[in-house]
Structures are given as structure tokens and as C-alpha cells.
Amino acid sequence: MAHLDVIDLSKEFQGEDGPIVAVEEMNLSIEKGEFIVLVGPSGCGKSTTLRCLAGLESPTEGDIQLNDRSVVDSPPMDRDMAMVFQNYALYPHMTARENMSFGLKMTTELSDEAIDQKVIEVAEMMGIKDLLGKKPSDISGGQQQRVALGRAIVREPEVFLMDEPLSNLDAKLRTEMRTELQNLQQTLDVTTIYVTHDQTEAMTMSDRIVILNKGKVQQVGTPLECYHEPTNRFVAGFIGSPSMNFFNVKLDGRTLVHPEFKYQISDSLFTELQEGNEFTLGIRPEDIKLTSQSTENSIPISVNVIEPMGDISYIYFDIGDNHVTASVSGEIQIQENTEVNILFPEEQLHLFDAQTGKAVY
Ligand code: ATP
């Protein structure tokens, strides 16, 4: 067994129009010290999963085990997990010092002096020692979040549970805190489950990402695995910005046929496509190549819009009904409304079963 195991976890709510399945048969094995990010679109079940781990919701089915011990029936305070919320959830009438020491006072036998010593140590580490006497209303959002993190750290839990902890901060502070949180997590080596809908946070902070959609785990893997080897079309479209481009194609002999183009595939790719003949072809913007001449599999297009970003430029164009984005070197000189040829290198193609969305190549 791993450090933290989520076993066949399901959570159903009673909605006005019937049951809502927020989490469905989730299984996760998380090792000690891992930084796991739960990511997915709004309503996919991220917060519910975290709240079940924290003990703020009871699962409808399944088990949660920490160090091989089931915690599903334990109250939040007895789980050895500390939660950090998006809105900080500090007690407004307490000072930062009181907020940070409150949990320890409730759950340990430590003396007031020992607790105060711990609070000071953590406050020093978090750079908030000078704020200990202040109330939440007298400090900034970023400082409040540090106090909230400090409150979780002083408890020395086995697991940190973080629900979008940076989303109320402005963009610059968010980027700074992202790095700081990562460093802190590595130093403390505490298993962390972090919820976000921001895929940049997911990609940059995590050891492994758990991608959820409609309550179901779609893929669990390192950021690069999820990026390069998405298991299905949903993951392929969710991870990566700008998103992967998709085209509906049919296989005819060794040709993938789209209303606007034909694509000859190699023998080796052909042998991998054992079943079905309707696919979704996927290609990431950065994998689309521009060619000066027309060659086999090249597609003539007319550039609608060019967006120079400095080192790269985004090029927008249409292929039939598909709006396509390509990302090319910023040094390439190209004008809007000109015709160019593009190429999808076969090694960079992704193919998904048109019905199930499962990756087949
Ligand atoms: P967001 O990113 O918007 O916070 P999320 O991925 O965290 O979304 P959840 O908040 O876990 O998603 O919600 C999952 C589903 O469960 C949604 O359909 C939501 O409406 C529903 N849900 C969550 N909490 C409750 C509740 N207390 N009662 C009824 N339905 C709920």
C-alpha cells in the first residue's frame, strides 16, 4: 500500500432533479512526499474529492487509507491532514498568532510556550513574524494566505490538502507564491494534494497530475506524460495551451480523409490502427510545420491572423470548419492573408477513436 490510498471512492449528492455523481469510483495511490495536483474543468469533482479526504464530506462509497489505516470514519481533526482554503478561512477575530496556534491547542497536549515556539519558527520560515500580532483584516491577501499556510504547517500533518490556495492572489504574486510553495513542500517533504483548475499550476508544480472530468479520473501521470501521451481526447484537449487542434477523419485504405485534406499514413502507423475507421486526428499548435513547397500530406492554408508573442508567433487559420492554431518561431516572416503550406509530422500526430475518444496512436 502507498502512503495515501483512495479506494473506489464515490460521492453522490441529492440534487433537486435527482442524484448528482460528483466523484465516481476514484482510485489513487499517492507516495509519501508526492505533490499531486487534481485538475479539471469546473464541476468535475476536485473540491469534493479534497473535502472527502479532509473529512468535510462523507463518501457515499469507498475508503481512504493513510499509512494503511482507514480514516473515512475519523473526524477532520483526527486525520493528520491540514487543509488550506482558497478564501484562507482565517478566524477574523483572532490575530495571526492565534490563528496559527488554534489547531495545535485543540489537538495536542503541548504547553502554550511550546506551541508559541513552533508558531514563531514557522512564522520566520514564512516571512510573517512581524505580522503575528495582526488580525486578518489588517494584512493583505497574500499575507493572509501565508498565515493560512503557516497554520497548516505548524500542525506538522502527514498530508496538506490545498483547494485553489493561490487563486485569490494577483497574477504576479501567484507566480511568486507558486515557486515558494513548491520549495516549501520540497523542504518539508509533506505529501500534498493540491486542487486547481489552472493547468499551468498543474504542469509546473506537480510530481503527478490527476486529470478529472465529470467525477471520473481520466489520467494520472507526470505532467510530461499527460502532455505527450494523453490517454484520451479529453486529456489531450485539456492539457496544453493553446489547445491541441482536432479534425474528424476517416481511414480509407492508408489514407486519413478529411473533407479538406488527405493524409497518407506510414505502414507502421497503419498496423497500429487495428480497429475502426473513424478517428479524431489531433496535432498540437507547436507541432504544425510550415513548408515553402507543396509536398505529400502538406495542406495549403490562408493565414487569417498572426499574433506575435516575441520568441514565437501564433498563426490562426481555417481548414474547412476547423479553426486551427499553429505556434511557429517568432523569426518566421509571414503576412496575414497569404497562402502557405502546413504539414503535420506523423511522429507528432495523435489519433483518438471517434466514438470512445480513447487514444489509439
Ligand atoms: P470548481 O472548480 O467549480 O470548484 P470542482 O471540480 O471543485 O468545481 P465540485 O465542487 O467538487 O467540483 O462539484 C462536483 C459536482 O458536485 C458539481 O456538479 C457540483 O454542483 C456538485 N456538488 C458539489 N457540492 C454539492 C452539494 N453540497 N450539494 C449538491 N451538489 C454538490
TrEMBL record:
InterPro entries: AAA+_ATPase, ABC_transporter-like_ATP-bd, ABC_transporter-like_CS, ABC_transpr_MalK-like, ABC_transpr_MalK/UgpC-like, Mo/tungstate-bd_C_term_dom, NA-bd_OB-fold, OB_MalK-like. Keywords: ATP-binding, Cell membrane, Membrane, Nucleotide-binding, Translocase, Transport. Its main location: membrane. It is a peripheral membrane protein. One of its GO terms (cellular component) is plasma membrane. Pfam families: ABC_tran, OB_MalK. Belongs to the ABC transporter superfamily. Carbohydrate uptake transporter-1 (CUT1) (TC 3.A.1.1) family. This is ABC-type D-xylose/L-arabinose transporter.
